[in-house]
Amino acid sequence: MTTLYHHPMSAASRFVRLILQEYGYQYDLAEEQPWEKRREFLTLNPAGTLPVYVDDNMRVLSGATVISEFLDETHGVLKRDRRLLAEDPFQRAEIRRLTEWFLEKMEQDVTMPLVRERVFKLQMPPTMGGGAPDSKILRTARNNVRQHMKYLGWLSASRPWLAGDRLSYADLAAAAAISVLDYLGEINWQENPEAKEWYQRLKSRPSIRTLLTERIRGVTPVSHYADLDF
Amino acid sequence: MTTLYHHPMSAASRFVRLILQEYGYQYDLAEEQPWEKRREFLTLNPAGTLPVYVDDNMRVLSGATVISEFLDETHGVLKRDRRLLAEDPFQRAEIRRLTEWFLEKMEQDVTMPLVRERVFKLQMPPTMGGGAPDSKILRTARNNVRQHMKYLGWLSASRPWLAGDRLSYADLAAAAAISVLDYLGEINWQENPEAKEWYQRLKSRPSIRTLLTERIRGVTPVSHYADLDF
């Protein structure tokens, strides 16, 4: 069976899991601590990033973009109106732009700094950079959350789904990042009613509900984390 | 005509120009200083990154990945054995993995720090971060160049072209980054004979030769920059 190397607090890993679950694809999970830079893991993916997808024939795909394009070519193309990338090249471009927005720009501005400071540093040994969170980094990232939530709210208000009329990779990428931040209690839903309405729709999907039942060692999620009503 | 917003020292911009030139596509160039964060430019691409592609109908595509996938879907697919992405999904994945390697990992480890410290800081006003280069950042980036050149050399020695038997996006992405670094004299070709042999083949292509005739204001390239013999 296909194995997905992932970390539960990696938005890119959650994104690929959501795609696999939306398409009803069976796979095994292997948790990887990316800061350990294990030699066997670097042999699979010299970039050392998550997620990594290894199929039955030990063929390896590395990174959320590479894996999601592969899944579109091998699975999505057969799914008709449940396909998560559009047919039209311009619509595909808009879906890809937003996917990149949530998994790269938001990752750098918000998700990765907050996850590193609040989760990874708890689990890393001091020799690898573990220790107390840096309050300046937290402050900057928390300011950035607000801007990103405004943009998400604006997209939610302008379109049925984030990239257009249909659920797409853009929604799954945003849900992946938002669910990580919501676990950590970093999202003010009162301030963002339109984004909240969109996330409620996402949360009602079975693909995301299984993800929301998982807990990270040593970090308790906010009380509403898995609730449809929040 | 299509307009490409670019910067001459942006590897991602060079990558898209190389694709357009390999496919014989006519386009206009508009130079953008990304640190200025011009309001009109942010309207085109809220992420503020280069390149940005605007077609005749004012439809906008942002970012090298989005643009290159669009060009494959609208042009590459018609090019048969001159197509720059493969047909097979696993080969496409390998081309995308390496494209991302050169335009994202190498960009963060090497290209962007060196370009920012050595070029952008010369042109930026002090209020936007201009000034003298930071020698610690230069030292770290120069150490990283060596590792990246080893990987490029290993790929060049193992395969006819970087991702397999045919010229692909992977070669153009690598050439885009390497040509920026070579302009700045940051590459030791003596230490990397296999990468050199690969780059000589790239340099003989008309798509890259036009790029190598351009000069950046205030920064002189190394003497061998545009030469086939270096």
Topology:
The structure is a homodimer of 230-residue chains.
Chain A: E1 3-6, H1 11-22, E2 28-31, H2 39-44, E3 52-54, E4 60-62, H3 64-74, H4 89-123, H5 135-158, H6 169-183, H7 193-203, H8 206-211
Parallel strand pairs in A: 1-2
Antiparallel strand pairs in A: 1-3, 3-4
Helix pairs in contact in A: 1-3, 1-6, 4-5, 4-6, 5-7
Notes on the structure:
Two copies of one chain form a homodimer. By secondary structure, chain A is of the alpha+beta class. Chain A folds into two domains: 3-82, Glutaredoxin; 89-205, Glutathione S-transferase Yfyf (Class Pi), Chain A, domain 2, CATH 1.20.1050. Helix content of chain A is 52%, strand content 6%. Chain A contains eight helices and four strands; from the N terminus they run βαβαββαααααα. In chain A, strands 2-1-3-4 form a four-stranded mixed β-sheet, with helices on one face. In chain A, 40% of the residues are buried. Chains A and B meet through α3 and α4 of A and α3 and α4 of B.
